[in-house]
């Protein structure tokens, strides 16, 4: 099992059609219906989205203009007033959904909670009021650093309710990474917990916050709101730190949702790019609400009785769009799980499916490959008959893993929805609609209605079928990122200038390579830039390099990805040392630990190779392409004539 290579997926010819029974009851029932939606959207994109926005969402005030497109800056539903927390909660309280389960939560130690829409609304209003009491106002940024507990979702919705953009920092990030992000966002308050459970251990969170903001390192932060989860001792700074349960006890559960401008910022989410500094991806309110709502409804064929479970972490875009906002906006029941498969219970996910009768299950290829390795006896020992749709996201899925998922988890009964999208796109861009679009293992199939995508060369010319090229999007869509927080120039450079506008048409450059087959199906090959995808987590190689060179022993570092059976890719770092140091196992260990401290465990290099020099071009650029081949144990192909000193390469080859 390896990453899908061009060769392996070029051979992939299997097709799976939705059953007649499934298609009959689906939101979108046939390929013709899908094509009609696409044609309608193509003929009048603004009319298409406006009609859905009117039908599917509640607006306090209608917009004056559907789209204001000043490339590359888009505004959707200009002048409209809306609140996503209202759309996710209040409007359902007027219907029987008031007492429907909104959030089903399962904790790792076996505790659990179910919150109905009424109960969730109550808690969100209380937290919103507490935030206000602590001085948070509309427009202030709030940092969220949480385990997977209901309060993480409550925190998002509470911020949205009062118009305070949130910035969630994944709980696995280190204090250092947390600090950088809080600083960039100038967060006024941080919501965290004492800790969370992961693989039978407590992951401390509050101590990381203490470290990140110690000595006034993040001057904007005035208060920290702490949820009690694990009950371990934590330091509480008087006047700064507050227990959520203390403040919740005395606060009103009445808090009207703020009427936000459709284009008001909803959140910032940091993601890795090609420089050392993570980008703050900015999403706004109205378009994001509409797009996450529609994509979940059609791509996962949401029905009123579904029990929907996405296994992502709220710290990533998948958690934002498809654990919290998309499902709740639709009035669905969304499941949230704190834990992860672990030695003491490798089948815990299947227990959750069985216990709650999960009907839609959405996870990542890296998880599927881990399930395969753990053995099919785990899922086979559980009743998975409630499942009707399976989803995947985060990286290309190899056809073998797709087939295993289809057979062992889906019992050949569940359409597989492979969704290609990004933090930047806000919602699914390429995805099957399970009642309408036949699937092919390894392909994210076709664009969502209203999305115009293509595969082009660097001049923006469409490439021929089955030729590799760059994946681009041609027309603005409602949930596209609006800018890089505080750096509109970087937004333009990163996404709109690699490929110049073609005949006045701006092309969004996704950073992924892809090909289109003769049926127009997309096969995404992975990143074409300096981003590695480790277990579905995006890591910038530059970010890891800067972490390494911040260690006193390191003179220079070059980080590349290498194919890995389980993780998809693993991080390999080539390191040259300062004069007085020499490479040793102990130093390798220390450097790995250093990266963990600087960024977090997800960025720990799998391998560190000490070398006397790095291969460089005459102009001094590190030739990562060569290092990638070396790390992956492949022959060095392509041009090496620009190498400044060939002996460096020969030496590296000898050593590997
Ligand atoms: C949602 C999410 C985005 C990058 C993206 C691509 C890869 C995501 C994929 C996929 C192939 C899929 N990716 N889904 N590649 N098939 N179905 O993962 O967002 O963390 O921003 O990562 O992930 O390389 O560019 P994000």
TrEMBL record:
What Enzyme Commission number(s) apply to this enzyme? 6.2.1.1
Give residue ranges for domain Acetyl-coenzyme A synthetase N-terminal. Answer: 34-88
Which residues does the annotation say bind CoA?
198-201, 318, 535
List residues modified as N6-acetyllysine.
Answer: 621
Task: Give the keywords, sorted.
Answer: Acetylation, ATP-binding, Ligase, Magnesium, Metal-binding, Nucleotide-binding
Which residue range or ranges hold the AMP-binding enzyme C-terminal domain?
Answer: 543-621
Q: Where does ATP bind?
A: 394-396, 418-423, 512, 527, 538
Known catalytic reactions: acetate + ATP + CoA = acetyl-CoA + AMP + diphosphate
Q: How is it modified after translation?
A: Acetylated. Deacetylation by the SIR2-homolog deacetylase activates the enzyme.
Q: Name one GO molecular function term.
A: acetate-CoA ligase activity
Q: Which residues form the AMP-dependent synthetase/ligase domain?
A: 92-482
Binding residues annotated for Mg(2+), in chain numbering = 549, 551, 554
| Entry keyword Magnesium | yes
**Organism superkingdom:** Bacteria
Alphabetized Pfam families for the sequence = ACAS_N, AMP-binding, AMP-binding_C
Q: Which cofactor does it need?
A: Mg(2+)
Q: What class of enzyme is it?
A: ligase
- What family is this? Belongs to the ATP-dependent AMP-binding enzyme family.
Please describe what this protein does.
Catalyzes the conversion of acetate into acetyl-CoA (AcCoA), an essential intermediate at the junction of anabolic and catabolic pathways. AcsA undergoes a two-step reaction. In the first half reaction, AcsA combines acetate with ATP to form acetyl-adenylate (AcAMP) intermediate. In the second half reaction, it can then transfer the acetyl group from AcAMP to the sulfhydryl group of CoA, forming the product AcCoA.
**HAMAP family, per the entry:** Ac_CoA_synth
Q: What is this protein called?
A: Acetyl-coenzyme A synthetase
Species of the source: Roseofilum halophilum BLCC-M91
């Amino acid at each position: 099992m390896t990453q899908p290579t061009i060769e392996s997926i070029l051979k992939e010819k299997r097709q799976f059609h939705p059953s007649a029974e499934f298609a009959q009851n689906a939101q979108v029932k046939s390929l013709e219906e899908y094509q009609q939606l696409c044609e309608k959207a193509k003929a009048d994109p603004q009319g298409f989205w406006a009609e859905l926005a009117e039908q599917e969402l509640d607006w306090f005030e209608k917009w004056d203009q559907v789209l204001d497109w000043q490339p590359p800056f888009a505004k959707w539903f200009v002048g409209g007033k809306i609140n996503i927390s209202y759309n996710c909660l209040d409007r359902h309280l007027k219907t029987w959904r008031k007492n429907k389960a909104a959030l089903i939560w399962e904790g790792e130690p076996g505790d659990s909670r179910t919150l109905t829409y009424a109960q969730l609304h109550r808690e969100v209003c209380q937290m919103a009021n507490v935030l206000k009491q602590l001085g948070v106002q509309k427009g202030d940024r709030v940092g969220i650093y949480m385990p997977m507990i209901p309060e993480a979702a409550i925190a998002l919705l509470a911020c949205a309710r009062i118009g305070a953009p949130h910035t969630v920092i994944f709980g696995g990030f280190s204090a250092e990474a947390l600090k950088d992000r809080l600083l960039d966002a100038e967060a006024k308050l941080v919501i965290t917990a004492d800790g969370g459970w992961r693989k039978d251990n407590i992951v401390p969170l509050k101590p990381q916050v203490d470290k990140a903001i110690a000595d006034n390192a993040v001057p904007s932060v005035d208060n920290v709101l702490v949820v009690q989860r694990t009950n371990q001792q934590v330091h509480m700074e008087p006047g700064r730190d507050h227990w959520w349960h203390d403040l919740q006890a005395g606060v009103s559960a009445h808090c009207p949702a703020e009427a936000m401008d459709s284009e008001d910022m909803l959140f910032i989410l940091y993601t890795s790019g090609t420089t050392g500094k993570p980008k703050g991806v900015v999403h706004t309110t109205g378009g994001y609400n509409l797009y996450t709502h529609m994509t979940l409804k059609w791509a996962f064929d949401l029905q009123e009785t579904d029990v929907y479970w996405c296994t992502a972490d709220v710290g990533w875009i998948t958690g934002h769009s498809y654990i919290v906002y998309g499902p709740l906006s639709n009035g669905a029941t969304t499941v949230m799980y704190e834990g992860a498969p672990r030695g003491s219970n490798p089948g815990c996910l299947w227990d959750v499916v069985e216990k709650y009768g999960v009907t839609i299950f959405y996870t990542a290829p890296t998880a599927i490959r881990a399930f395969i390795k753990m053995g099919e006896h785990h899922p086979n020992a559980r009743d998975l008959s409630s499942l009707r749709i399976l989803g995947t996201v985060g990286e290309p899925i190899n056809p073998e893993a797709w087939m295993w998922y289809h057979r062992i988890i889906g019992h050949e009964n569940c359409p597989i929805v492979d969704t290609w999208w990004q933090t930047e796109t806000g919602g699914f861009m390429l995805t099957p609609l399970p009642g309408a679009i036949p699937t092919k293992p390894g392909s994210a199939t076709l664009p969502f209605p209203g999305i115009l995508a293509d595969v082009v060369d660097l001049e923006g010319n469409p490439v021929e079928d089955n030729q590799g090229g760059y994946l681009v999007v041609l027309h603005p869509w409602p949930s596209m990122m609006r800018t890089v927080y505080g750096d509109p120039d970087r937004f333009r450079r990163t996404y709109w200038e690699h490929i110049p506008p073609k005949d006045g048409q701006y092309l969004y450059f996704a950073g992924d390579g892809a090909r289109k087959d003769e049926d127009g199906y997309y096969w995404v090959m992975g990143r074409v830039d300096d981003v590695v995808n480790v277990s579905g987590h995006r890591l910038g190689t530059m970010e890891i390099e800067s972490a390494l060179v911040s260690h006193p022993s390191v003179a220079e570092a070059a980080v590349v990805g290498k194919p890995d059976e389980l993780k998809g890719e693993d991080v390999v770092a080539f390191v040259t040392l300062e004069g007085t140091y020499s490479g040793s196992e102990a130093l390798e260990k220390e450097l790995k630990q250093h990266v963990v401290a600087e960024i977090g465990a997800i960025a720990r290099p799998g391998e560190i190779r000490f070398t006397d020099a790095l291969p460089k071009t005459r102009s001094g650029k590190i030739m990562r392409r060569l290092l990638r081949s070396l790390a992956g144990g492949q022959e060095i192909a392509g041009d090496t004539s620009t190498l400044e000193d060939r002996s460096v390469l020969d030496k590296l080859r000898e050593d590997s």
